[in-house]
């Protein structure tokens, strides 16, 4: 019964992260943090799932490598936007 409660906790974390991602945000940093929260919830779900079926944890390391690369890429884009525009507001730069 405990595994079902944990699974619903990760599904709840995933949907809260998606809700924050799709809501109207003024700052790019909030969007990047919500993406990292989604990745973290997926990582914890995979961790519990792989521990439940006694599978090798090698794929979790690959997933962590890609999520760290995604986070560093997002931070580098944030720094370049702050240097070029002076802030991280979505309204201050054009998406074209």
From TrEMBL:
Which InterPro entries does this entry report, sorted A to Z?
Answer: NUOK/Mnh_C1-like (IPR039428)
Family from the record: Belongs to the complex I subunit 4L family.
> Which gene is transcribed and translated to give this protein?
nad4L
Its main subcellular localisation, reduced to a broad class, is membrane
Record membrane topology: Multi-pass membrane protein
A single Gene Ontology CC annotation of this entry is: membrane
User: Which species expresses this protein natively?
Assistant: Bombyx mori (Silk moth)
* Location(s) in or outside the cell: Membrane
Give one GO term, molecular function aspect: NADH dehydrogenase (ubiquinone) activity
Name the residues that span the membrane: 6-22, 29-53, 59-82
Q: Which Pfam families match?
A: Oxidored_q2
Enumerate the Gene3D superfamilies for this protein.
1.10.287.3510
User: What protein name does the entry list?
Assistant: NADH-ubiquinone oxidoreductase chain 4L
Keyword tags: Membrane, Mitochondrion, NAD, Translocase, Transmembrane, Transmembrane helix
Question: Which superkingdom heads the taxonomic lineage of this protein's source?
Answer: Eukaryota
